[in-house]
Amino acid sequence: MKYVWAPWRIEYIKAEKPAGCIFCEKPKESKDKKNYILYRGIKNFIMLNSYPYNPGHILVAPYRHTGNLEELTEEERSEHYELVSRSVAVLKKVLKPAGFNIGANLGRVAGAGIEDHFHSHVVPRWQGDNNFMPVLGDAKVIPQALADTYDTLADYF
């Protein structure tokens, strides 16, 4: 049997899970680095996903709490997708992925972990980033710590 060590996960396992919505609460704090907030726009912000599929997995969310894409104002929607585009440009420049998965999961059955606050995912992809671990071992190895990813990307936002 092979073992994959992920000692940073113990912090999440032991931590008290926050009540409320992270997309509402985190931007209210003045702890952008701790919360992995890379950029604050007027209506939306960009943050790293704390449980990424790959290094550089970015989330773009409006400040306003709504789970419905169709409820975003034109201004919120326009800035939202501008920040998705900006995220792709920064990730291309800094991490140089071979491609991207971009999207939103609307509703629990569609895979939304946080279904009552709309957000988009920008996931950089590299050739071979999906190997035997998730296929056979039901585990994903993320080769870079979140704090290191934040430090790598922060100056570009």
Quick summary:
With 157 residues, this protein is α+β, with helices and mostly antiparallel strands. The chain contains 6 helices and 5 strands.
What attributes characterize this protein structure?
157 residues; alpha+beta; HIT family, subunit A; five-stranded antiparallel beta sheet; 31% helix; 16% strand
Instruction: Could you tell me the CATH topology label.
Output: HIT family, subunit A
Alpha carbon gyration radius: 16 Å
Total domain count? 1
Decide which structural class fits the backbone.
Answer: alpha+beta
Helix content: 25-40%
Report on this structure.
It contains 6 helices and 5 strands. The longest helix is centred in the middle third of the chain and has 21 residues. The protein starts with 8 loop residues before the first helix and ends with a helix. The chain is of the alpha+beta class and about 160 residues long. The protein has a single domain, classed as HIT family, subunit A (2-Layer Sandwich), CATH 3.30.428. Strand 1 and strand 2 form a beta hairpin. It has a 5-stranded antiparallel sheet with strand order 1-2-3-5-4.
SSE blueprint:
Layout: H1 9-14, H2 22-25, H3 32-35, E1 37-40, E2 44-48, E3 58-62, H4 74-94, E4 99-103, E5 120-125, H5 132-136, H6 146-153
Antiparallel strand pairs: 1-2, 2-3, 3-5, 4-5
